[in-house]
Amino acid sequence: MNRIVNARLRDREGLFTLRWEAGLITAIEPQVDTGPASGPTSRPVDGAASATVSAAAADTAAETIDAAGNLVVPPLVEPHIHLDATLTAGEPRWNLSGTLFEGIACWAERKARVTAQDTKARAHETIRMLAAHGIQHVRTHVDVTEPGLGTLQAMLEVREEARPLVDLQVVAFPQEGIESYPDGRRLMIEAVEMGVDGVGGIPHFENTRDQGVSSVHFLMDLAVRHDRLVDVHCDETDDPHSRFLEVLAEATRVQGMGSRVTASHTTAMGSYDNAYCSKLFRLLKQAGLSFISCPTESIHLQGRFDTYPKRRGLTRVAELDQAGLNVCFAQDSIVDPWYPLGNGNILRILDAGLHICHMLGYEDLQRALDFVTDHSARALALGEGYGIEVGRPANLVVRSADSDYEVLRSQGGAQVSIRHGRVLMRKTLPEICWQDGRDARMPSPDAQGGRG
Ligand code: FE2
Q1: 297 catalytic, yes or no?
Q2: Same structural domain for residues 40 and 87?
Q3: Does some domain include residue 446?
Q4: Which residues lie near ion ligand 1 (Cβ < 5 Å)?
Q5: What is the pTM of this model?
Q6: Quick one: 266 and 216 in the same domain?
């Protein structure tokens, strides 16, 4: 029997002991008050208490992990990334303007050199970066506008090889269109037959409005026939006339697909007028689809045709959330021709997203992690494979802070990550000796400061 003691849980008062056996959570037990040692108010002023693991090896039969009053959460989720393009920025040249279009040109040059080995090596390296930040569930889009689908085959192999670190969903993404690209429909069908988890699309990029509409109907029918999830790059533009979300939402409503369908980006919604949005939101609520926003990518790539005032180029995250729709945040890119930064830490994206979307009000701060945990899990249809409940997989992450607010504020990193009941990764806080003789424990990059 393994356990975590002194765990703080989201939305629950007090401290808990979590137990698991054979990879499943077996008990969540409230603890009797153990005094000041574990409470957040007793923390060192300049550093969060560090979780400790007793028993020697990561895979020994019985371990006790002391969370020291810190938050224990289910793994964070990365619901939208392009693992086939990550870690390629600067190859063969840098995107000097930083625009979407120069990014496409850079990628065309890099894509000519892509091999299966190259794809797999970069994907595995990126997955390890994600896992180091406590992420265990990932959805990647893979470009299937490629004769032969070699990159997709490589990513399906990565999906199996990476299982010790993450559960990976692979979505067939037609980067250059379904209707506008030669054999686009056939490639999508082949991708589904090869075993992708989800069907994608890019209707705003098709040559005509009609092609965009027909591409949505095609991909939805394909997903229904093969019982796959759907995740469409939808209206990723500042063009207020790009209105394929209504087509996707109506198809979702008619097919009864609900939360199995996700609309990614929908940045045009940031440019829709309020009268149209009022009508649109009625349909979105009837359809019940999910939304993914990629705030760092969108603030960087959108608004490029504006002078001033300059649009933020994001979808209406706060309004979707207030309407009861499921919305979450994602990284989209890590060090690729479209976005040169990123390190796998989705808390950085959460921080940026809440700023950009005017979501730093008190209530927002108390539930900030919803947008990188439960909401994302719903978008990925993880169901009972996710969450801290008895009978569910013992996938647990000890953060280096004690609340949503503190995790967000201090970028509270993953101290211990447990996957299927085994310690996958642990991190210790670094120490710095202050010359003025202050406490030796230094706020780490993961835990800058406690309450004081
Ligand atoms: Fe994307």
Answers
A1: no
A2: no
A3: no
A4: 332
A5: 0.92
A6: yes
